[in-house]
Amino acid sequence: MLNRKVSDTASDWREGRRLRALELYRQGWKQKHIAEALGVTCGAVSQWVKRIREVPDESAVEVLRRRKPTGAPSHLTACQRQELSDLLSRGARAWGYSDDIWTYRRVAETIERAYGVRYHESYVGRLLKACGIEVRHSSQVLS
After folding, report:
1. Most buried residue, 18, 31, 75, 91, by CB count within 10 Å?
2. Which domain, by its residues, includes 108?
3. For residue 58, what pLDDT band results from cuts at 50, 70 and 90?
4. pTM above 0.85, yes or no
5. pLDDT, tens only, 112-136
6. CATH at residue 23
7. Rounded to an integer, what distance in angstroms lies between the CA atom of residue 62 and that of residue 55?
8. Which residue, 81, 116, 115, 110, is CA-closest to 95?
9. What range(s) does the Winged helix-turn helix domain occupy (predicted)?
10. Is position 58 within any domain?
């Protein structure tokens, strides 16, 4: 177990492939041969090697590890996201709707009226969950 390869610690097969490329590179393999052995393009290996060269040797493994995509920044500020629950707790009638049922479309419209930020109704459920607001069914929101 002392001779365990770095690539054995990978969280998925893509990461394992990148870490295996690192091992082969450290053994002196040419990039072309690494690409052939791993079934990837020379360009991919070149990008991995570039990342490796840009950091100290002890950080090489970390730059090849899988990173969670960050996504686009939120259009609502942290303060606005916290206020959203209070805004919805007033009820849909307070925002001019005929009943007190919150739908994703209504929530999206209310956010746009209150903050000037437009969200597609299909995204509203994820936004509410991220704000800690309970979602009931696929179209109703509990505030």
Report:
1. 18
2. 78-141
3. confident
4. no
5. 999 999 999 999 999 998 888 876 6
6. 1.10.10
7. 10
8. 110
9. 100-133
10. yes
